[in-house]
Request: fold
Amino acid sequence: MIHSHVANSRASAPSPTEELRARYAAVRQASASFCTPLTDEDCVIQSMPDASPIRWHLAHTTWFFETFVLSRAIENYQPVNAAFEYLFNSYYNQVGRQFPRARRGLLSRPTMSEVWRYRREVDYRMEQLLARPEELPEELLSVVELGLQHEQQHQELMHTDLKHLLACNPLYPAYRPGTQETHSSTSALEWVAFDEGVYHIGHEGLGFAFDNEGPRHRVWLNAFELASRPVTNAEFLDFIEAGGYRRPEFWLSLGWQTVQAEGWQAPLYWLCDASGGWQEFTLAGLRPLVPHAPVCHLSYFEADAYARWSGARLPTEAEWEVAAADWLAEAGAISGNFVESGQLQPTPAKDAKCSHRLQQLLGDVWEWTASSYAPYPGYAPPPGALGEYNGKFMCNQYVLRGGSCVTPESHVRITYRNFFPPDARWQFTGVRLAR
Amino acid sequence: MIHSHVANSRASAPSPTEELRARYAAVRQASASFCTPLTDEDCVIQSMPDASPIRWHLAHTTWFFETFVLSRAIENYQPVNAAFEYLFNSYYNQVGRQFPRARRGLLSRPTMSEVWRYRREVDYRMEQLLARPEELPEELLSVVELGLQHEQQHQELMHTDLKHLLACNPLYPAYRPGTQETHSSTSALEWVAFDEGVYHIGHEGLGFAFDNEGPRHRVWLNAFELASRPVTNAEFLDFIEAGGYRRPEFWLSLGWQTVQAEGWQAPLYWLCDASGGWQEFTLAGLRPLVPHAPVCHLSYFEADAYARWSGARLPTEAEWEVAAADWLAEAGAISGNFVESGQLQPTPAKDAKCSHRLQQLLGDVWEWTASSYAPYPGYAPPPGALGEYNGKFMCNQYVLRGGSCVTPESHVRITYRNFFPPDARWQFTGVRLAR
Amino acid sequence: MIHSHVANSRASAPSPTEELRARYAAVRQASASFCTPLTDEDCVIQSMPDASPIRWHLAHTTWFFETFVLSRAIENYQPVNAAFEYLFNSYYNQVGRQFPRARRGLLSRPTMSEVWRYRREVDYRMEQLLARPEELPEELLSVVELGLQHEQQHQELMHTDLKHLLACNPLYPAYRPGTQETHSSTSALEWVAFDEGVYHIGHEGLGFAFDNEGPRHRVWLNAFELASRPVTNAEFLDFIEAGGYRRPEFWLSLGWQTVQAEGWQAPLYWLCDASGGWQEFTLAGLRPLVPHAPVCHLSYFEADAYARWSGARLPTEAEWEVAAADWLAEAGAISGNFVESGQLQPTPAKDAKCSHRLQQLLGDVWEWTASSYAPYPGYAPPPGALGEYNGKFMCNQYVLRGGSCVTPESHVRITYRNFFPPDARWQFTGVRLAR
Amino acid sequence: MIHSHVANSRASAPSPTEELRARYAAVRQASASFCTPLTDEDCVIQSMPDASPIRWHLAHTTWFFETFVLSRAIENYQPVNAAFEYLFNSYYNQVGRQFPRARRGLLSRPTMSEVWRYRREVDYRMEQLLARPEELPEELLSVVELGLQHEQQHQELMHTDLKHLLACNPLYPAYRPGTQETHSSTSALEWVAFDEGVYHIGHEGLGFAFDNEGPRHRVWLNAFELASRPVTNAEFLDFIEAGGYRRPEFWLSLGWQTVQAEGWQAPLYWLCDASGGWQEFTLAGLRPLVPHAPVCHLSYFEADAYARWSGARLPTEAEWEVAAADWLAEAGAISGNFVESGQLQPTPAKDAKCSHRLQQLLGDVWEWTASSYAPYPGYAPPPGALGEYNGKFMCNQYVLRGGSCVTPESHVRITYRNFFPPDARWQFTGVRLAR
Reply:
């Protein structure tokens, strides 16, 4: 469901379309800025079927505006390049056939300079269009906002896909040197309690949200407690040293199969050096593990096994959202370690700006929930190709909440539902306990 | 959680242990009776990694009693054959290593006659044990009941695994000739409405239930409607003829991938003959499709795609159970087309014995729900190896409700949670719509 | 090419057809005798795609007579069972479609008793036919002989496929208890020299041979030396202890890939027990390795790596045959450790009956040669389906010579060309060095 | 075996080392020239495990000189970059571990500009070294020549790997526009006869050759005939139209399996357009098929099936070389359509400059022979890591002769043995018939 909030508030000043134009420019620029340290070679390779080349992200996000905005808004629209409809369609069957996902890394053409030219041309056409808002149907304004949110999702994927690519290289090249905050301590883990009852969760009202965040609806929750902060690297090391990766009793059956088939012995990107010390590959290169930072790059299987080992469990997404709403009521606004901080790694919990006992709910690491990704009661995808955006992926995936250190701040909401299969590890994914 | 109902009512007449002895004899005999029409060759082959040889089912269910009852009840217990602990352990890591599941079909020894001897010897020892109930700890009586429920589960699997094996054979041999009821009509599909509210679901109190059926707990449900009967073959044919298997817009993304990779064009076991007529492989051999019987051998993907095509959806397991409780209150007792009917295929809905508008909730076909298989709030597996029975499979599977035409009647409950991965088709699985 | 020797000598006494009738009875009986110790369960399982169930061997060899003799000799021939043409066709595209090789183990029907009935019926029809030789075209007599040779090939495969199946079973069941000769010594390895020159190799003249053994033709050979006997287990242990399986410098590139992918550390069927001693699985069960017996169950890769490590090489098939012809001229007749000895394992070299310095050329183990399996100059397969017998397999396989301890004696010739892919290990395959 | 021809002729003028310096400069420059039309994106992608990125070819050939010349010639040699020893080692186990072949396409660093810098630095060091020949051991001069021949091999692979990469792109980009000669006719196919007898084949004497081309040795050949020119596209179309790809009787068993598994219906890079006309992807882009040009991009399986369909066979490599020696005696020097012609596609046979009836033996397409790639009698690889150059690949590959339209002219010899697995199609491989 694409919300009509933009249209609803078109009378205010600066006008919503002016805001949208500014936001269009800012989001599109952020993708370009991400690429500044990259060479053309970095942008063309696909390191695994789940990841895409940077070049593809840049073109696909552009294709989105061309397909869903320009070609609908402009009569007899002439595409920049007719071949791109096929090459850069990700998974919209109703738009047409797609170049196979696993083969995205086999294309050296269009080259990076052609892709940049494609972006510039579409940006020019979009700017022309947004300059004449009176000619633009209201529902297309919503699609522009959707396209920007879509591009922000891909900005996060550009970070994670690039990290995976660089990690394949035995030279362990850094994306940006960076300086990571390495607090020598973190706050003690406390349990924050919530009462049983019927709660409302899900998005409603003004402000953008993806269709999968609604409808807002009631759920019954038993009383529960949520940990005050995510599990840290040091705590996860205890699990490893207790034989966590060798003892099937902590694992889901599928998880144990994966551990054995893949030979997992630690989170993704952890390396044990010759002297037994742990290092971690980051976007700033190989670095010593930061003990008090939230543990990251865990699969659902590892998050769940850790929780079982520690005598706790994962929260459901409803529990998480109820807690987050409570926090937000006190904090007043979104805050956390997002991509804008430049850390590009989760950092230890700091003295909270907010007096609420829950810390780091937003930013740092996506938090696995126990909830399978499923439609909310009454959910229906929008008609047409954009209905393929979310709904058709509601199978064999688990919901993550809260955003990470590579999520844009303006992209985060407490109703936001991210989702990945339970064996995925290349996102910035961690764990907060419940009981 | 293994319930102590047997112990709780030990004072009544006939005594609970007498009842248990009788039930032990009956259930064990049912496994043997199943094999009457089979040759030794039929019993040894594994047709796919998900299925097991009949020989293995017979031995594994026996191993269960030896491992979890006899060796715990008898001091210095001498196993019938020490090698069987390894060979017939299915997945209990805490009992020890397991012979790999996918290789169960590589064993020609122990032969069938040795397996029968193994069963007789364990039955003798169990009878001796059950004849002295005063020496038997109460918790072991519960494990005996668990072992019988376990054997009933495997009796259902023996039907489905045998059907899969026979279907691999181009001669399409019949298990039993059988005579199938082929009503020329079925009842019209109606919608039965339920109100919104907080409901209780899950098992509680006396009577056996698996640990995954509890704890009983509250859920919030929006108002919903449930179809009065399952979807029929004739209705599913409409979906096929409308291009259902060729149109991605009806499918989950994973489902569409599976359709293409596997070349699915109809439910499992359907064959289109040269003249375009449909036949179905049954345990009675190849037969013309019965139009008004419930459609069967659907994956979750197919059930979900059919529902979407028809403008409806799958029910959640909570909705299903609330409806079933309503039905049971009126019907008074479990009834339906179970294995005891000898049909071994779902049959068209008949004039209901019960005035409730819901029909065929129990028996005929397992009904896919939209619910991912997950622990109920407060669920904890029992300690020890038996804790591996259910909990560790709660990932990437979907819940099915209601039992099928090859489920033993005494094994069915309205709180029963069956579960399979979304691409599984070799069980007797169908679909009832909700909206 | 199927030779017409039977026809050529039809005037002698006992008549060739009488001899053929007796031979038919003897060869068919040998297949049945092989099965005496087996249960029906042993006969139905396929342990890997390269192996076939015993049941299939028994039926396929019978199908061969029905397809290539009975249905050609008898007008309006009525097959015993029309379905068998499809089920038991191995690879003859010109006869029709084939049930997939890798799925032969999925058939429980026809049962063993039906297969025995099939054999009896075809034997009866064959005996009727052979009783009226005057009605039988001469070329069909040759096909009868081909069918018997074919069945003898399958008798060898029944031994090797059964051994593979039993070895999959952690109980290590024995086929026959057996008593193996375990000489405490073997003869010293000597080198036997041959001069350079143009030699003739290949089959010519009377007596059966497969088409791939001809035409007889000239080859140029440089001077060479051949080892007096095959490499022994003790010698091969030296290679293992010298790190042979861990040092890539001895291996073909494909061989080294296979060693790593498969984790090979010793020949197939060798087991290192807890105390570091070596045992070997045989058709008589697990037994201590016999140091002076020829090493067995080597792939071409292992044979070649051993040869390179020892400073020698594998012989070409021309070298082997020239040496064997020299030996046969002195020995006068075929002799060796064949299936009739009942050993069913290679045995240490004994005092030779023959004064020739070459020992164990025939029997004990098939000897890998350096020769890729290729057509001899002027080779053309016979027309029709029987042309598919040999020629189409002449790719990516290597020639083996000399027969093994499970080859029937009457099946062995010095021109005989056996062939397997270079990674095959489940045949009784060993190595004789050349230089 | 690396021949000492350079050393043997060191007294002539210009001095051999002067010649070698000039040749070093020319060959190294040719690799750079190849890259002129390429972008960095083109150079980094690996299109399949058998192919390598252009970037890798450029670095690996440089690594060869650094590893086998510079580090041996210079005491305490400091490598340009220590990591490159691992990254750019192809398969020399004796040099050390190798970065996995199938993952070469996962490296975006070192970037192309770093690779060019690496080449310049090694070229500088090599020039310094070659400028002081008196300090250079003679055997290292041979290794320099080996390195140049090695780089020429990779120049051919750069063409074939790039062609494969560009063909993965639905835009079908051209490497160089090019103008292909499209003769409207070709010469009639004639048969050229050779007598039976003992012949010598293999390399001997002065001039570079790879170790696998020797020792020169005798072979016996029966009388044979060789086709005067390769099979053309038009002739191969007849095979397709006769159902060649649908009729198993023409195919080796492995070939038929491959045809079915891969869905082959025509040579690699042929496309059938909507109107049934054939196009071919070339390094100049998609173009109409040239009927009279030699058919190209055939696997051994297709070459062999065509030969069988046409009633002929493939020549052995000995037959081919005997014929080529006869041709060379008359022609006097190597000539043909090599990479220097700039065609980069095989072209129709032209009026021969030479009166010999055999045409196009050299250049245009590599010609599959019936000969499995095996060591010549007496062959031994040189000691050390360079012994891994050829010998360890002598298994499951077939010999090709004559060079192609992307082979450098100075790299071709009539004794040259190229080799590929029988299913390889991405080289410029065709077929000349024999009988």
